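Input record, target 12 of the design panel.
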């Protein structure tokens, strides 16, 4: 039975957004001019639309902060350092162990190691402050995307277990206008980036799509590539997904929801492994994995897509 459980563990997606509840925090900083203002607004709209329509994120789990009090015609809170800290505090009470939290920073940045920033209305928050705000999410799967220029220094400050950090540039010296944001948010809202066409968009698929499209854009315009996106943990990025399209058949949808609840329990259990008795942990993991296998078999029998 232990071997069976180990085999099943290898086949169960770890911390996929399709299995756990999804939570999203979007922070759009100062734009500086109308062209950037529109680009940032488009990115906010694309992310919000993907979160609601594709991932099923609830209103209480979707927090958007912008430089203005309106975003896409909706009242929002301004992206001040105080409001960002408050948003993380609110999410810390809602994001359960095993859930997925996506944080997307949009704006103009500067790299100074732990003091790296994205320009905000008022005092800027540093990479060190973002790291502190993320500490309560040790049992969750965090995807932190800094799509600003000069963002590479965020990676060593924020990287850690159970966390994927993506930056639009690999160093603080890449300060030119970055195109990564528009391609990354395009990946979130469509099917083009789903390379294996399994209905799930992994974090790594979105990252790879955006990076490839950036390179194509520079090549088309005969420019030297001045931005090189970075992902801190490609293996974790491949496991975590942003969700999948809902099943049309309500019976299949119900089975998928039941399996997702079980997968969430697996993720939460793994987060507690170090504090549990080994025998009890293995027994509970075996029970959950067998239940997931049964749900998967039922989904397949009903004609569903695994």
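The sequence produced for target 12 reads:
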């Amino acid at each position: 039975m232990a071997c069976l459980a180990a085999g099943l563990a290898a086949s169960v997606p770890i911390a996929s957004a399709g299995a756990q509840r999804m939570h999203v925090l979007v922070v759009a900083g100062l734009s500086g001019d109308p062209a950037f203002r529109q680009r940032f607004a488009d990115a906010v709209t694309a992310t919000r639309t993907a979160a609601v329509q594709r991932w099923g994120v609830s209103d209480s789990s979707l927090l958007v902060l912008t430089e203005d009090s309106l975003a896409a015609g909706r009242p929002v809170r301004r992206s001040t350092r105080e409001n960002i800290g408050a948003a993380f505090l609110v999410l810390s009470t809602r994001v359960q162990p095993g859930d997925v939290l996506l944080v997307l920073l949009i704006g103009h940045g500067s790299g100074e190691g732990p003091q790296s920033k994205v320009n905000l209305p008022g005092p800027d928050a540093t990479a060190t402050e973002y790291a502190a705000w993320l500490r309560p999410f040790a049992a969750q799967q965090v995807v932190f995307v800094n799509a600003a220029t000069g963002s590479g220094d965020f990676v060593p400050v924020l990287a850690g277990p159970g966390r994927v950090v993506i930056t639009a540039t690999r160093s603080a010296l890449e300060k030119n206008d970055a195109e990564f944001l528009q391609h990354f948010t395009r990946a979130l809202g469509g099917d083009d980036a789903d390379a294996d066409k399994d209905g799930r968009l992994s974090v790594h698929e979105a990252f790879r799509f955006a990076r490839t499209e950036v390179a194509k854009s520079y090549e088309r315009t005969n420019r030297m590539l001045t931005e090189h996106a970075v992902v801190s943990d490609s293996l974790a990025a491949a496991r975590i997904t942003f969700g999948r399209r809902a099943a049309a058949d309500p019976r299949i949808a119900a089975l998928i929801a039941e399996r997702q609840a079980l997968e969430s329990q697996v993720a939460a259990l793994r987060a507690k492994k170090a504090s549990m008795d080994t025998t009890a942990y293995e027994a509970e993991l075996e029970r959950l994995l067998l239940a997931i296998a049964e749900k998967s078999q039922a989904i397949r029998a009903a004609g569903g897509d695994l």
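The chain has two domains: 22-244, 246-301.
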